[in-house]
Amino acid sequence: SRGHYERRPLDVAMSRKFLDNLVESYDYNRMYFMKSDVDDFVAEYGDTLGERGEAGEVGAAYVVYDRFMERLGERRALVTELLASSMTFTAAESVPTERHKEPWAATDAEMRERWRLGVKFELLRGRLEGEKGEDPAKAVVTHYDSLFDNYKQFDSGDVLQNFLSALCRVYDPHTDYFAAAKEENFTIGMRLSLFGI
Questions:
Q1: What are the phi and psi torsion angles at 138 (to 5°)?
Q2: Of 17, 107, 142, 170, which has the most beta carbons under 10 Å away?
Q3: Buried (b) or exposed (e) across 3-39, using 16+ Cβ within 10 A?
């Protein structure tokens, strides 16, 4: 709020944008969090996240991450369940291409339908694009297992980096916060050189 050229304070409007950015950093396409999750986050942090962040209070980062991991585990189990059912490709169905503009799923049935259509789309795409003899269902499972494993490996620094990046994007959508290790890797990548062993 002091260093940015617009000098916008982290008021209620900025706090809400900060929270939106944090939630979207985990679930941009609204496939994991339920409306009730987002409502909980808004009730607890919506008006005060900026103020709390300025005071060094970062508990929201871990609350959102923990809830995301809970939902990610549930969705991964749902994918396995859906793939075990028989899916046909005869019905005229469609999948929204801009799901981030859709409302958050309010019920389990609504979320289940999103995932049914999403998994069906991934299976169909796998059949059309995959190698001959390759099992599209196995590729879908592998994708979600890898996603879960990647997020499970987040340490407190990764969670904090995500939180601070959400804050940075309140002021500029193209700005992220890099923790020291990530910044070093980014710099090495930009230089295309590495010194030392």
A1: -65, -40
A2: 170
A3: eeeeeeebeeebbbbbbbbbbebbbeebbbbbeebbe
Cα separation, 65 vs 84, whole angstroms: 29
Instruction: Determine the Cα–Cα distance for residues 177 and 163; give it in Å rounded to an integer.
Output: 9
Cα(150)–Cα(87) distance, integer angstroms: 28
Cα–Cα distance measured from residue 164 to residue 52, given in angstroms and rounded to the nearest whole number: 12
Q: How far apart are CA 104 and CA 126, in angstroms?
A: 27
In terms of Cβ atoms closer than 10 Å to its own Cβ (0-12, 13-18, 19+), residue 123 is buried
Contact status, residue 120 vs residue 93, Cβ threshold 8 Å: yes
In this predicted model, what pLDDT tens digit does every residue of 158-196 receive, in sequence order? Answer: 999 999 999 988 887 766 666 666 666 666 666 666 555
> Considering the entire predicted model, what is its pTM?
0.84
Main-chain dihedrals φ then ψ at residue 156, nearest 5 degrees = -60, -30
For the stretch 105-133, pLDDT in tens is: 999 999 999 999 999 999 999 888 877 77
